[in-house]
Amino acid sequence: DKPMDIQAYVIKSSPAALILISQFFSVLLLVYFLLAVGSLYRRKVVRISGPSFGRMRKAARIMDDLHHQIRRFLFVMVIGALFVGILTWLAFLGLGVEQAALWGVVAGIASGVPYLGPFLVFIGTGMAGFIQFGALDNAIIIAGTSLLITSIQGNLLTPWLTSYISSLNAVAIFIGLLFWGWLWGPIGLIVATPILMITKSLCDHVVNLRAIGELLGK
Q1: Helices then strands (H, E): number in the chain?
Q2: Which of 85, 167, 191, 213 is the most buried (most CB within 10 A)?
Q3: At 99, phi and psi to the nearest 5?
Q4: In whole angstroms, what is the distance from residue 218 CA to residue 168 CA?
């Protein structure tokens, strides 16, 4: 049998990785523009909510809450990406991996895509380690280190920060990730949590939807 050409496989898979990274940045840009024009849409929603002062005030409260939810989600993403990026860089530097800083940047960006991003980094770092050192044990150590860091971020740090800044329960978050990931792929995994946070906020402010908010809450 012809041995697998790992370098050719990495080169062949690079367009898919570039698409994933570009989609991730597209979502960040969309969120940024929504935050930048947040006051404009806040005024528009207040105006179309009706002539009643009570309804206008309620609409303003809802928009303020949604704005805060998006800001909190971005905060969690940035902290998680910095955690993964810095630890990956330092760990790979200690292991003697080439381009350790670049791998730190890639791992930090990929950590924003739950499950799929860390898995791709795990595979990529394992291949890179095997190509550089030519030994399977070195590749396993490097890939395992990457998996350990992203597991701490994904299973401990991010859930703790998310539960601290929002009132979503873990089951609702997991089901949301499954649904939006199935519907939109990697982008769905990125936007699942903020969509749930926004939905929970809306349901808490609308009397007829508070039952749904209760199911999503802790």
Answers
A1: 10, 0
A2: 85
A3: 55, 45
A4: 6
The backbone torsions φ and ψ at residue 133, rounded to the nearest 5 degrees and listed phi first, read -100, -20
Nearest Cα residue to 6 out of 143, 117, 101, 100: 143
Nearest to 22 by CA among 173, 190, 147: 190
Which structure tokens are listed for 88? 């990956």
For 25-66, write each residue's pLDDT tens digit: 666 666 666 555 555 555 655 565 556 656 666 666 777 777
Are 200 and 218 a contacting pair, CB within 8 Å?
no
Residue with tokens 């980094």: 121
Task: Specify the pTM.
Answer: 0.65
Close Cβ partners of 146 (under 8 Å, ≥ 6 residues apart) = 88, 103, 107, 118, 121, 122, 125, 126
- Better-scored residue on pLDDT, 84 or 184: 84
Token pair of 75 as six digits: 């905060």
Q: Which residues, 6+ apart, have CB-to-CB distance to 17 below 8 Å?
A: 120, 124
